[in-house]
Amino acid sequence: IKKYTEAFRQHLKASGVPVENSKGEAGIGQHELNIKFSDILSMADRHTTYKQCLKEVADQFGVSVTFMAKPFIDTAGSGCHIHLSMVNSSDGKNAFTADGSGTNSNDQFSPLFKHFLAGWLKYTPDVMVFYAPTINSYKRFMSASWAPTHLAWSYDNRTAAFRVVGKGQSTRIECRLPGADCNIYLAFAASLASGLRGIADKLEPPPIFEGDIYQAKELPQVPRTLKEAIRVFENSSFAREAFGEDVVNHYLNFYRQEQAAYEKTVTDWERHRYFEQI
Fold this sequence. Notes:
The chain is an alpha+beta fold. The chain folds into 2 domains: 1-65; 66-265, 2-Layer Sandwich (Creatine Kinase, Chain A, domain 2). The protein contains 9 helices and 6 strands; from the N terminus they run H-E-E-H-E-H-H-E-E-E-H-H-H-H-H. The chain has helices spanning 2-14, 40-61, 111-122, 128-131, 184-200, 226-234, 237-243, 245-263, 268-274, and strands spanning 19-24, 31-35, 82-84, 153-155, 162-165, 172-175. Strands 3-6-5-4 form a 4-stranded mixed sheet, with no helix packed on it. A hairpin with a 6-residue loop joins strand 5 (162-165) and strand 6 (172-175). Helix 7 packs across helix 8. The radius of gyration is 20 Å and the shape is globular. The mean pLDDT is 92.
């Protein structure tokens, strides 16, 4: 795998995609790739380029790469964690910090940060289909899997759906919900639309959570299946206001077709479980 990773990093560099680091992850053959931050559209383009690059280089090496969210049942899934911050247009400084003091207390965050985070949290269920677009996506959301199962925010807590990281000018929100299978343009659009609505409505986030969120049964859960997420998306006035009727109806049709294709498929799991027993 070392020769493969060296090759795709060289190709990405030549393609104008700056890789900060890459490393092996928890699963067998699983790899993490971190791209240097940029404006949101450039980052979406870089994301798309690196996925295509990894596929093409893998083909040259005679190996396979998958961006499935949960390719194997007995190991951690693959996420697409979004790190997002905002800057002031006047001075280019981080707009999420109150005074740049760099302390870990809650008062280091600006009102804009709190409103943006509150909107992102509130409207996650409405646009969950943009973070988790396939049947397989939802099999990643399991306890003790490093993927979130409940909606909450916390400071540097990997059990949280929204993990706040960094200090001072590096303060940012990490959304750990999207899987590696997401369309990054849609995931970014959903994130921005939710956060900006929070700013517009001056929403306030719930109290910061401390501890193991997997054990916090009182917190709202993320949608557990594509079918559930489709229903919420269909009935969301927020989604229709943010993206327009045509966009929502287009993607509703797409996700319904995906759900219907799955429901009429006989899986290996069914054959293994029922073939001899029934």
